[in-house]
Design brief:
The chain contains 15 helices and 25 strands. With about 475 residues, the chain is α/β, with parallel strands linked by helices.
């Protein structure tokens, strides 16, 4: 049983101001895995005050000092990767093989990306006799989700610390264990007190206190579009910068002339990774109408090979994170059936033999049209929709017919054909022909998927910096 009874503020573990606590549920068996203290406005005030004090000196540290600090964080993180992976499996149900590689590994990847970018980043640019400088924005409030807990914590914290900002973090109260370990990593690495602060709590209380706080200069949130809107509203009176990475309903466009066996199989596996609980998951597979029967046959076979079970076992798919998420997904699965989609595999109800735990049948719907709820709403579960298109123009129209614009995928016979279609998809991160994930590229969305960019080394730095013009700071050029 994990008991998270303290917050990390000003370089020390401190008691919360109040006595509220929440159960942390293991989604694999619905048991109480631990408890987490829930903070309030007073806790946020303490954390912000510590971060503001620390900013005065930390913002003036040298590049070399911050490089050394990130290197120390990386070394301590490596020591705790096994602990982090185990915590992620327990708190949100990711299969152990994924939690220990993709989940815990992504955190280290973001530390190294920030470290490498910091070594080369240009904080000053001459412009005639003006010197344009980039300075840390100040205290950054961070609100992170449960689905990729370390990925989303570290892809914010690492660049913020790299450029000289200080941090107040509120991780998800649904999955707080790994964030607590990350705070222990920060402490062991010798990060100066007040530079990183952690306050556990829920969105309406701690999230709102952070986003509205006059001592917070910027808020970075990853979460649902609904949550992002609330943060923006709360932040508006203090005119602070708000960076949002929000929901998605990403298209996976398969053009004629490709190997459909490989593309459909890859698309299904990509969708079902992390039990479909990924904002960039390729949840709408768009295929030529002339190849639909072939795609259905492949999808049915591949879907039937997926296995569901205990995330500590040898299964493809674990549970979804919570009872609330389970019930939401069940409702959307039923709506798919009611609206006339064909469930090639899966559908409403629990997988056979799994009566305990928040397990959902991996589901592949065919005969989906883009006006159905399952094609328009972010399901955030192991549910794939297959839609057909008449020609390339129709595929692009369907791909863009969504409120979201986080990510997309295009598979085409040639790279040039893939690029031509990808360039017309209104999304911030489009994968071409199954290319591997690239932490060195910027990640973020269009439309209701948010604003700003994370990852990508120097692109990930930019949102944490203010731009100042020092007019006349440089000598005039000799005539």
């Amino acid at each position: 049983m994990r008991e998270l009874n303290k917050f990390y503020i000003d370089g020390a573990w401190v008691d919360p101001s109040g006595s509220d606590r929440a159960d942390v549920i293991n989604p694999a068996n619905e048991s109480v895995a631990g408890h987490v203290a829930l903070g309030n406005q007073a806790d946020v005030d303490k954390a912000v005050a510590a971060a503001r004090r620390a900013f005065e000196s930390y913002s003036r540290t040298s590049r070399e000092e911050r490089i050394a600090l990130l290197e120390a964080i990386a070394e301590e993180y490596k020591k705790r990767m096994g602990d982090i992976g185990a915590a992620i499996t327990e708190e949100m149900g990711a299969p152990a093989w994924l939690a220990n590689t993709g989940q815990a590994g992504s955190g280290l990847g973001h530390i190294m990306s920030a470290l490498n970018a910091l070594k080369e980043y240009q904080f000053e640019h001459p412009h005639g006799t003006t010197l344009v400088v980039k300075e840390p924005i100040g205290v950054v409030g961070m609100i992170t989700p449960w689905n990729w807990p370390m990925n989303q914590v570290v892809c914010k914290v690492a660049p913020a610390l790299a450029v000289g900002c200080t941090v107040v973090l509120k991780p998800s109260e649904v999955a707080p264990f790994s964030a607590q370990i990350f705070a222990e990593v920060i402490h062991a690495a010798g990060v100066p007190k007040g530079v990183f602060n952690l306050v556990h709590g829920d969105g309406p209380t701690v999230g709102a206190a952070i986003s509205s706080h006059p001592g917070v200069d910027m808020v970075s949130i990853t979460g649902s579009t609904r949550a992002g809107i609330e943060v923006a509203k709360n932040a508006a009176p203090t005119v602070k910068r708000v960076v949002q990475e929000l929901g998605g309903k990403s298209p996976n466009v398969l053009l004629d002339g490709i190997n459909f066996e490989e593309a459909v199989t890859g698309g299904i596996k990509g969708m079902m990774l992390n039990c479909g609980q990924s904002c960039a998951a390729p949840s709408r597979m768009l295929v030529p109408a002339s190849r639909l029967d072939e795609v259905k046959a492949i999808a049915k076979r591949v879907g039937e090979e997926l296995t569901v079970g205990d995330p500590n076992g040898n299964f493809t798919v674990g549970p979804v994170v919570s009872e609330a998420q389970f019930n939401k997904i069940q409702g959307l699965l039923q709506s798919g059936v009611d609206e006339g989609a064909t469930a090639l595999v899966g559908g409403p109800g629990r997988p056979e033999g799994l009566e305990k735990g928040y397990y959902v049948k991996p589901t592949i719907f065919a005969d989906v049209t883009n006006d159905m709820r399952i094609a328009r709403e972010e399901i955030f579960g192991p549910v794939l929709c297959i839609l057909s298109f008449k020609d390339e123009e129709d595929a692009i129209r369907i791909a863009n017919d969504t409120d979201y614009g986080l990510a997309g995928m295009v598979s085409a016979p040639t790279l040039e054909e893939a690029k031509a279609v990808a360039s017309r998809i209104r999304a911030g991160y489009v994968n071409l022909n199954g290319a591997p994930m690239d932490f060195g590229s910027p990640f973020g969305g269009y439309k209701q998927s948010g604003n700003g960019r994370e990852w990508g080394g120097h692109w990930g730095f930019d949102d944490y910096l203010e731009i100042k013009s020092l007019v006349g700071a440089l000598p005039a050029a000799a005539e």
